[in-house]
Design a protein that fits this description.
With about 150 residues, the protein is an all-alpha fold. The chain has eight helices and no strands. The longest helix has 30 residues.
Length: about 150
């Protein structure tokens, strides 16, 4: 590498794999970024240059399913995830977009359900605390004493 440090040394210093180091190096080369360029940027600028965040255009290529509707539909007899995915896939293709694969579709729905479950649990705990008219003590982070 141009600074005279091997990938192995960088890998050990950063506690990351040599493959990751190679990917960063190859990405920088493809963007014509030099070490001098990198040294003039903040870490955040450099990271954004190497790994730009996806924009709305990319997100719109694969529209996400309506998980709320899916949940309601799955309550009906004879409706399963495969059927919902097939309907979703047809609708997305009809508008010229790329549908999620079945596994991605299911993972997206599972994440939605997990969030709903966590939100419901938090609401239930809060409702129970409030209904018992218990006082919630707010602790000061520094002194660990209640305010």
């Amino acid at each position: 590498m141009s600074l005279g440090i091997s990938r192995n040394e960088i890998s050990k210093l950063l506690k990351t794999s040599r493959n990751t180091i190679r990917k960063v190096e190859n990405t920088a080369k493809s963007l014509n970024l030099t070490w001098n360029d990198a040294s003039t940027m903040s870490n955040e600028e450099f990271a954004n240059k190497l790994f730009p965040k996806s924009n709305d255009d990319n997100d719109n290529l694969q529209p996400k399913p309506d998980c709320e509707m899916m949940y309601l539909e799955l309550q009906k007899t004879g409706v399963n995830r495969m059927l919902l995915w097939e309907e979703y896939s047809k609708e997305v293709k009809a508008i010229g977009k790329i549908p999620l694969q079945y596994s991605q579709f299911c993972n997206y729905f599972n994440q939605y359900m997990e969030k709903q479950s966590n939100d419901a649990l938090a609401d239930a705990i809060l409702d129970r605390v409030v209904s018992k008219s218990q006082t919630i003590k707010i602790m000061d982070d520094k002194s660990m004493r209640s305010r």
